[in-house]
Amino acid sequence: MIEHPWFTVEPWAVAEEQLHLDVLAQSESVFALSNGHIGFRGNLDEGEPFGIPGTYLNAFYETRPLPYAEAGYGYPEDGQTLINVTNGKLIRLLVDDEPFDIRYGELIRHVRRLDFRAGTLTREVDWRSPTGRSIRVRSIRLVSFAQRSAAAIRYEVEPLDGTMRVVVQSELVTNESQPPQSHDPRAAAALADALVAENQIARDLRVLLMHATRRSGLGMAAGMDHMVDGPDGTVTGAEAEEDLGRVTVTADLESGTTLRLDKLLAYGWSSQRSFSSLRDQVDAALAAARKSGFDGLAADQRTYLDAFWAGADVEVGGDAELQQAVRFSLFHTLQAGARAEQRAIAAKGLTGPGYDGHCFWDTEAFVLPVLTHTAPAAAADALRWRLSTIDLAEERARTLGLAGAAFPWRTIRGQECSSYWPAGTAAFHIDADIAAAVVRYVAATGDDDFERDVGVELLVKAARLYMSLGHHDAQGAFHIDGVTGPDEYSALADDNVYTNLMVQRNLRAAAEASPRHVDRARALGVNAEELATWRAAADAMMVPWDDLLGVHPQSEDFTRQPRWDFSQTTEDDYPLLLHFPYFELYRRQVIKQADLVLALHVCGDAFTDEEKQRNFDYYEEMTVRDSSLSACTQAVVAAEVGHLDLAYDYFGEAALMDLDDLEHNTRDGLHIASLAGSWIAAVAGFGGLRDHGGELTFAPRLPQHLTHLTFRLGWRGRTLQVSVENNRASYELLDGEALELSHHGDRVTVEPGGPLELAVQQVEPRPEPKQPPGRAPRRRRER
Question: Looking at residue 74, what is its pLDDT?
């Protein structure tokens, strides 16, 4: 999208200087606002035209039937879909009885701007009506980080050519028309008009609507209040009906005067509380927002983001597009989780209906590493949400005949919603991904209370799952068979290296954490014998190796399979899963997304440098990147093994996934994990950050196309700034006590009061590996 001439490239914002309807749906995702609890797509204030209307509440969903041609034991019967709730963004305008609609009359000027530091979406429009009357409309929209249940819009109308009568209609609308979310008629019927009216209230300039979902039994309330600043004689009124609330403001405006409407919004929902309780919650949230006023909410928003950027900013020198993209990515990653507060962080955040609003393993594997170092409270809450669903995970494990807890592949509330076993339930690595996120968070924060109250149970229940899933062979080696790793083109394989290494870490972490919190472990039934079985399985974990090729098979016998015939595959055949049967994909060497290469990153201490080089080169030739999760991992490992230019290309692909709409589905919402991956590519790739064994280490080096890289992160109560430029790196404590870390393998101590400057070790350039035909990343180095 930013390649279009009407999108500007600037370091702290994304701005659209003209409105083009051919990318309207994509821009609605890009300009989305959220705090992790409430999500607003970047729809136009007047609601039309639209690509996909979207107002979302985290974890507010409707159930729908899952269709099966042939059902089987353990298949989930119902799915969960995030629904479009009551739309409070709508503000309609009539100018001398002519509706303001950008499709009619003349659109003279139209500018929108998403500001990463202010946390606002601004819009400025000059429009001439079909009758020749000209007006200027300005709006500012925010979803509050400071007040979780609140959002606000400032809407201003100014005549440009004499006195005119304007009517502003501020609305709450429920069950608004939108494109179908499912091609299955049963599911579509379940999602159509999903909300049933329960009550509505209108008093003064405040309106509340209360609704319940038809099937899932969730209740919600939405409310709006207003502050109006207009000329003498301005008239206001309010009304409410089942699916519509409206406040109308009418004024006669002269040139040089402005009608200002500050619209305050609040949302609340629950699966258990009464509607009177929801009403009171929304009333209270509106009262708090009214006390702050729009200016106070905007000031609090800026204060919140100033604190975030002070500990999280990434500065990229030499590539203006990537500088914009990495801050855009960080901003949306924060928006996805900041105030989720023990609810899921979905794959699309709250930016669109893609993936039905589900949470996947990529939350723990890609999003939480970023939040752990930049917004640790949000990372902790995401893991508390996992613990809150552990009863459902234990029930799922029992259904599968396993011990412990089997966390779902895709879900909103915690029930498994994946209807395809090989790419869903069989991807048992999700428990280990959660366990790794626990270990990383505790290491980065030193939060012993969290480890005791949350971490131990997650680690123990996951360890028990794997002990029941795996087995020792006659020689004592521990195997985990019939699973799917991150590469969903290789399903139901034995001894997937990524899964086995992650499980090994899970087992060891559970065995180490339990003695630290004896009472908690005892309450979970952990004893010395069980600890010994975990340690023994971890020590005996099978990690396949191919002596002939000198690489690790992605899973047992993977390297014996025939390679995919790329000579018979055209660019139109991607993604492969839409053009070839799964059985062909499953029995050949072709990779959807980084799998063994992901293990090289997150379990890098299990491989030698030579093994990393050989493995990366081997798997690069068959990885087709039919997933947005792949590029950032390939960037990290490419940088480590010396392919810095290739890493730079992959960094660009991860960071620009949505700004350039590389997957052609940004209209359905942003790829939050890929956006988080741009931070990972910068900080773990070119900054060389690793945290193996809870130790903070760096091995920074830059591609020739970047002049410098500076990033900030949190570690055990400190804020560390790392800067890399030319052949030097500096480490500086912005706050906190002295910190010991590793720089290119050497232990050093960073003291308060000034930067520690060290030389960067260079790597010998090696011949670049080839990618499958037509699947190389876009060459940023040639721009």
Answer: 84
Report residue 553 as tokens: 């098979």
Give the dihedral sign, CA 321/322/327/329. Answer: positive
CA-based nearest residue to 50, from 25, 85, 78, 23: 25
List all residues 6 or more positions away from 698 whose beta carbon is below 8 Å from its beta carbon. Answer: 687, 688, 689, 690, 722, 729, 731, 741, 742, 743, 744
Give the pLDDT band of residue 1 (cuts 50, 70, 90).
low
Cβ atoms of 221 and 279 closer than 8 Å: yes
Query: What is the DSSP track for 220-234?
Result: EEEEEEEEEE--TT-
Annotation says 488 is catalytic: yes
User: Which residue among 46, 488, 530, 640 is the active-site one?
Assistant: 488
The predicted pLDDT at position 765 comes to: 82
DSSP string, 745-770: TEEEEEPTTS-EEEEPPP----PPPP
pLDDT in tens, 137-193: 999 999 999 999 999 999 999 999 999 999 999 999 999 987 765 555 545 555 778
| Nearest partner of 410 among 676, 683, 76, judged by Cα | 76
Helix, strand, or coil (residue 43): coil
d(CA 375, CA 377): 6
**What domains does the chain contain, in order, with CATH numbers?**
31-310 (2.70.98.40), 313-466+480-694 (1.50.10.10), 695-765 (2.60.420.10)
Task: Of 191, 218, 219, 192, give the one whose Cα is nearest residue 64.
Answer: 191
Answer for the pair 742, 695: CB distance below 8 angstroms, yes or no: yes
Token pair of 650, please? 């992959």
Instruction: Report pLDDT digits (tens) over 602-650.
Output: 999 999 999 999 999 999 999 999 999 999 999 999 999 999 999 999 9
The pLDDT of residue 581 is above 70: yes
Question: Can you say how many angstroms the Cα of residue 641 is from the centroid of all Cα atoms in its chain?
Answer: 28
Q: What is the DSSP letter of 683?
A: I
Bridge partners for 65 per DSSP: 78
Q: Which SS3 state, helix, strand or coil, does residue 602 take?
A: helix
2 — pLDDT class (breaks 50, 70, 90): low
Q: What is the mean pLDDT of residues 772-776?
A: 93
Rounded CA-CA distance 82/34 in Å is: 15
Looking at residue 610, its pLDDT comes to 97
DSSP code string of 464-531: HHHHHH-EE-TTS-EE--SB--S-TTS-SBSS-HHHHHHHHHHHHHHHHHHHHTHHHHHHTT--HHHH
